[in-house]
Amino acid sequence: MDENDINATKNLPYCNSQPTCEAAQPMCYKERNKAMERLNSKLYVENCYIMKENERLRKKAELLNQENQQLLFQLKQRLSKTKNPNGSNNDNDICSSSSASGKS
């Protein structure tokens, strides 16, 4: 919602007629009601767009998380295969195996 929308809510029509002018008051109410309905419709559409975008981003985040978990699993497998008999890691083997396979 931008500043124009906020100002639109502040500038909704009010009835300026005297209390004795009963015929003008329903018209002021109708104008104000129409303005509120227009603003409500606009906010509803904006909210639908935000929810749709949120769902799209949630699915993307889920896929990235799955990919991250797979990469972590592969890294752990490589680390376990390159351990020396005394239990320490050999970093040179990891670098050479990743560059030899063309993957980083």
UniProtKB/TrEMBL annotation:
InterPro entries, per database record: ZPR
Q: Where is the composition biased (Low complexity)?
A: 86-104
Location of region: Disordered: 77-104
Q: Which PANTHER family match?
A: PROTEIN LITTLE ZIPPER 3, PROTEIN LITTLE ZIPPER 4
Under what name is this protein listed?
Answer: (rape) hypothetical protein
